[in-house]
Amino acid sequence: MGGEHTTGAGMLGDPMKHPLARAPYPLVCLGLGLVLGWVPKLIHGPIPQKFDVLYIQGSIAVWAYYTARLLIGVWVGLTTWPERWWLRGPMVGFLSLAPLGWLALSMPGCGFPCMRLNLSTATGVGFAIAGLAWLLTGRHSRSAS
Question: Residue range 62-66: average pLDDT?
Answer without folding.
Answer: 92
